[in-house]
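so i finally got all the pieces together for this one. its three components total, 762 residues if u count the protein bits. some of the lines might not be protein, just check the labels. i wanna see the whole assembly predicted at once instead of chain by chain like last time, that was a mess tbh
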Amino acid sequence: MTNLKKLGLGLATALVALSTSMAVQAKDWKTVTIAMEGAYEPWNLTDPSGKIVGFEVDVAMDLCKRAALECKIIAQDWDGMIPGLVAGKFDAGMDGMSITEERMKTIAFSKPYAQTPASLVVNKNGPLAKLPGTGSVINLAKNAAEGDAAIAALKAALKGKTIGVQVSTIHATFADKYFKDVATIREYKTTDEHDADLMAGRLDAVLADVTAEAPVLAKPEAKDLMFAGTQFSAGPIFGTGVGIALRQTDPELVAKFNTALDAAFADGTIKKYSLQWFKIDTAP
Amino acid sequence: MDYLTVLGFGPKGWGLALLAGMAITLVVSLAALIIGSAVGSLVAWAKLSKNLAANIAGDAYTTIFRGVPELLIIYLFYFGGSAVVSGIAHMFGLEGFYDIPPFAAGALAVGLISGSYQGEVYRGAYIAIAKGELEAATAVGMNRGLKFRRIIVPQVLRFAIPGLGNTWQLTLKDSALVSVTGLVDLMRESAMAAGSTHRYMTFYLAAGALYLLLTSVSGYLFNAAEVRATRGLRRSN
Amino acid sequence: MDFNFLSSTFIRLMGALPLTLELWALAVFFGAFLALGLTWMRARKGRILPGLSRFYVFIFRGTPLLVQLFLIYYGLGSIKEVQQSFLWPFLREPFYCAVLALAMNTAAYASEIFRGALAAVPFGQVEAGIACGMSRLTVFRRIIFPIALRQALPAYSTEIILMTKATALASLVTLFEVTGVAQKIKNDTYRALEVYLVAGLIYLVLNFIIARAIAALEHYLSPHLRAIPASKRIPDPADVL
């Protein structure tokens, strides 16, 4: 071997030693690494001891038991979820990620295990306290016309305001599509950050998932916040529900999770966890 | 929840988590410093060399790592790194995807940045060695290795201590940026605690205080080391 | 090499350059004034003012800029009293918070540079100025300031260039300067390597231009340190005779 090749091989070996996982595409799945944000209460959150807990943790553990898989949960920032999955850093991603056409271009999803609406959150004493449609939920897939009217009404009310969203979410896409020309859209890395800015008064509204914002609104610091405006679910942007993100090259894993999900829905396990963490049944 | 509970060590307290984060910060910074000293020595050698190509390479290295934001370099290594490593692996016919863990990406990025500063420190330290000593060493018959080991290295280390102290503090502070990769260092831990409890002032002040502790203790230690290393040396001040 | 992608990325990133430059310019400008104030405080007699100045420098050089930025943006932003004060129109905006954090940070380093530069002014020249009957103000204006400026420029230029890199942190408080836009493109297209390389190149060129500009300024300020061109040199009598 020439010296250059020896050097190169040594370098490659060193790099292999550097990496923690060699994601060989095994057809026979025994262990699965699942990534979660750990900052999306109550779907997944990190407790002071550093452990990730939440609705998705319980569901994941249950599904893995059913599918005879050993599952490891790791933390991953939301904006690196899809790239990390595709690159092979982990095998699955669960972070309240909605199944959308756009995402299905790059990754695959399991069947949905929950579906929750999106809503604006505003300050009780702010200019947006009286948004049209507060208290109603419109399914954009089933009632497109009604949905469009509600969106138009909201658009008029949001003129000149500042709305916060989390980057790369369906909420960001929705806000970009419908409110970008009338309002200022600010993108944040985590929901905590846009909630903080809403509480501080830097934002007039936040567009986010209802179940993710509910625990925030329950906290004493957020006593001035409230849900407002029409809530929306489903439709081309919001997707067909929350699913487990998987690689398109792992159809066997998708099948395994789907079988496990069917069983978990059938015997009410998912409903149990949903009531426990969300206080409502979020079945799609 | 009052401040003591939330910062303390009880079940609802983040005190232990913050200290754990501080430990990670220290370890990443140390790893970066070691990488930096290896790289810095190379850079210093390249710049001091009579070889034009080496000079240019050394200058280019310093220009790049001092001209591009640290945040961008960390992003490059972490997000772009997996692509590079996989690419290199594929060139050698190795299958699969390779992952760069946040710690490695962060330590490498900060280490290479630190290397550019350390290169300047070592270069200055080498220039400070009395030329007469180097000539005497050659005259006495020391070979290159012996000269390096007994004359150059001890003196470079001694003259480099103030500069290294500065670079160490810079590295400690740059390590806070590694938190964007998700590594749970002090910065990340306090951001998590602040976001979870909505007590931003409390936790960022705590983080600041802990970083201050790290930098001031380091400063004190480096000062003591400098005093000890230069005892007996006649100084112009 | 996907040149289409590279060029469209380049154009998008260049669009964010003005914001980067704004952040940088304002931070350097206000930071310089704050630094002068700190250096003035440090030079006073007594214990309080110099002590305050030293404390400020200790804090701002001993903690990461990121912590300072988050403290100002999220920390101050979460305090009710601040939200209701006259400062709120400024602290409300991430842009001003970022400028404030950057300015306060650079002031700490700059004040140390200015302090060193002042100390390097040869006291003999100051004495000569006083002996000539110059007032304190004139001595400062004609002797201390020019010499200190020349002395400070190399180190201060490094600090100014460090500031361009520091503006990248503004992307972490929702500002879309070059690094922020790069992140957005990377999130949308997943092509991290290409985006970051283009962004890095932009910063390198920016810093190169700034370094050249400062070198030109240094050159302009130190004509007495340069060799006199041959045509203007007074001929040595030995040569003529």
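The longest strand of chain A covers residues 225-233.
Chain A touches chain C through 18 residues (CB under 8 Å).
anyway lmk what u think
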